[in-house]
Amino acid sequence: MSTRSRSLLFSSATGIAGVALLAVLWEGYKALGPAEGLRIGAVEGERGSGVMVLPRTDDVAMPHLIDMLVRLLEPVSSSAADTPLWLAVVQAASLSLGIALCGLAIGLVVGTVLAVAMQRVRIVESAVLPLVILSQTVPLIALAPLVRSWGARIEIGEFEWQNWMSVAVIAAYLAFFPIAVGMLRGLQSPSAVDVELMDSLASGWWSTLVRLRLPAAVPYLVPALKLAGASAVVGTVVAEVSVGLPGGIGRMIMEFAGFVSSDPAKVWAPITGALLLGLVVAGLVALAGLPLNRFRRTELAS
Amino acid sequence: MTIIIDTPERLDTTTDAVSVDGVTRIFSARKRGAADVVALSDVSLTVHAGEFVSLIGPSGCGKSTLLRQIADLDQPDAGSVSVFGKTARRARLDQDYGIAFQQAGLLPWRTVSQNIALPLQMHRERGLDVAARVRELIELVGLGDFADRYPDQLSGGMQQRVAIARSLARNPKLLLMDEPFGALDEMTRERMQSELLRICGETGAAVVFVTHSIPEAVFLSHRVVVMSPRPGRVKEVVVMERAGAPVGSDAVRDDAAFFRGVTAVREALHDGAAAGQGVENR
Amino acid sequence: MTAATAVPSAPVVARRRGLPPALASALPPLVLVVVALLLWELAVRALEIPAFLLPAPSAIGAEFARLTPQIVEASVATGTNALLGLVISAVVAVLLAIAASGARVVDGMLAPVVVALAVVPIAAVAPVFYIMFGSSSETGRVIVVAIAVFVPVFVNALRGLRQVSPVHRELLRALNITGWRAVRTVTVPTALPFVFTGLRQASSLAVISALVSEYFGGPKTGIGSQITTAASGSNYAQAWAFVLGAIVTGLAFYLVTLALERVVSRHRPSP
């Protein structure tokens, strides 16, 4: 067996073992942990006092993993004619996926345009870049509940602002920052020699951008896109909750959380869906990056 | 191998290739309190069509800066530069010269042929068969089997050949070279020098060649311009004898005239008061 | 053969003489912010933009001044969750990173978890934590923060632990220092700046996660809950004032962790 395939086998085996260990921890704690959880500093006879540091282990708080899986195969509601839960989760996740990708696309365009502007005009860079970097350190997602008020209240001619657009705007908002920063670094990455070569070839700004700067930016763009993809997913799920957009996975998490006492395993279904959504977007971004590998030769070779 | 290259009508071959007249270039100090650097002080130089001129001198003597003035990659604070009778800027926009740097400066995402094709794609010439011209250039620099390789799959010497092929792409009558062989090992370097002379012989291009190496300058050049630093100026111009062994052949390196040239340039560099044979004092 | 002549790069930046460099670089963004605020104010007034779309900065400022005590209280509540989560996560992440740098099996077992955690929306798990720890408990939020910030701290700590130079490794062998003592004398000091770089990267994520987890329910204590409450009550300027509070909290976290990173990284090769 080659070293390469052996190390692949090793990492897959340990990876699966790692995930299995998490499952064992869950079931192990459920079996052995205190049924009412653990509180520190609780006052005798006063319910809910103190700080709970270990969770309860009953079936409502921590359903068995097998129950969560079985529940996925059953219908959404008690009526047997309903769609199976897994299908409903997939449908909701697909809607969110569409919105997240839409946000990511807007973020990519806006981020790229801003990065090109910053690269082209020095004063724009010195004025905008510190703010862009700073804004990554502050919780801009706090704005999400405010965008809710836009829904159905903006009308421009035939065009009526839809709630899903608010969600996409927030997703785009979160996605555009890493792209703008990564793209700018990439556009500025060509060495002085490369730029002078283009100058010596009497290359115009546009030609240098297309033939030199954009290709050189790809190694910086690909990791930025991964970050942006993850941000777009977080933005979509959170914004669906704050905007109250029905049909998406974020909203479904909130809805199903209401069934916790009667149907505890159901709560976990949309959460699994949200985690899958994150993985799917990361996978799609990675796939979209494959044709760009030609521009990452030096990076991939090292 | 013979490559037939048409003699371009667009250039008046009687015009000097490069004419530098009283050029001064001062770099203002970055840090406060530091003195400004006079990179070039009242430098004048003429390069005739088809002539090979080397610029040599210690670090900081402004030889690269002078080359960059000719290439219009940097502009003088005083004086003027003309290339084939045009301003340097016009000559750059008209692509009258080809340039090669110490680093090959190949675009890593382009193959050898795509890198060589870059100048041709940038300014499309009517009726020019780009693919055929690229094949011709690849043959010229002896990289026939490597057309579809990427730069990271080539040795340093091969990368530099690609860069030279790229500088020749538009068949320029002037080549500007900034230590193009500086990063190569000695053996590759000597082979590249011979090839460069052969290529120049075939294309008839004038060359301005920046180097740190005395033997390299002597081997390649008709004239060697010796420069001195702080402020950067032309100290001496040493004219080479081109007798004896055929130009560009390795036999030249063992020729007595070659050694006399080396001595003359060395003395000029080290303030040698005794002007050797064939030294033109200014 | 001597090295290549240093060629001054083409664009020589015009210096603003008379201005200290820190101020000179802070000036353009400050000017932009002021101009943007002025335009915002003017636009809101001139175009009569309704408050639900965008309240005027002056209105937000007035609300911020009026509600300062509440905003501080809510910021402290959210900030406490963020801080607790950050500290817990840092301890766990560093311990796991030490284990992972020591044993390939641990590294392999953690790999898929780290990759997945980096891309999934952790805040979505908040509702089940409210169930597991009780809906009046802040513990769920702390755990959301801890999980969310785990990846940057762990990844940086692991990178730092692998940074120990071969010279130091051989020195340890020569001095016959092994096991935990080796970790303590060389590995931890080498890795520490990296851990703090991870903490700095994680700091804003901590505040964001603490705030977002409030959008998913739980006790109405933090700044996220206040934003939701104000927005659903159509008090838009008030909601924006709380957003401003959230921004200040996020900046505070960032600046403190940045300062810590600087202090720890003195005299050490920067990561």
TrEMBL record, chain A:
Pfam families: BPD_transp_1. GO terms for cellular component: plasma membrane. GO terms for biological process: transmembrane transport. InterPro entries: MetI-like, MetI-like_sf. It is a multi-pass membrane protein. It is found in: Cell membrane. The chain crosses the membrane at residues 7-26, 85-116, 123-144, 164-184, 220-247, 267-290. Keywords: Cell membrane, Membrane, Transmembrane, Transmembrane helix, Transport. The keyword Acetylation does not apply. Residues 93-288 form the ABC transmembrane type-1 domain. The keyword Membrane applies. Belongs to the binding-protein-dependent transport system permease family. This is ABC transporter permease subunit.
UniProtKB/TrEMBL annotation, chain B:
It holds the Pfam family ABC_tran. Residues 18-256 form the ABC transporter domain. Coiled coil: none annotated. SUPFAM superfamilies: P-loop containing nucleoside triphosphate hydrolases (SSF52540). Keywords: ATP-binding, Nucleotide-binding, Transport. One of its GO terms (molecular function) is ATP binding. The keyword Translocase does not apply. The keyword Nucleotide-binding applies. This is ABC transporter ATP-binding protein.
UniProtKB/TrEMBL annotation, chain C:
Keywords: Cell membrane, Membrane, Transmembrane, Transmembrane helix, Transport. One of its GO terms (biological process) is transmembrane transport. One of its GO terms (cellular component) is plasma membrane. Pfam families: BPD_transp_1. The chain crosses the membrane at residues 21-40, 82-103, 110-133, 139-161, 182-199, 239-260. Signal peptide: none annotated. Its main location: membrane. It is found in: Cell membrane. The keyword Amino-acid biosynthesis does not apply. SUPFAM superfamilies: MetI-like. It is a multi-pass membrane protein. The keyword Transmembrane helix applies. Residues 75-264 form the ABC transmembrane type-1 domain. This is ABC transporter permease subunit. It comes from Mycetocola reblochoni.
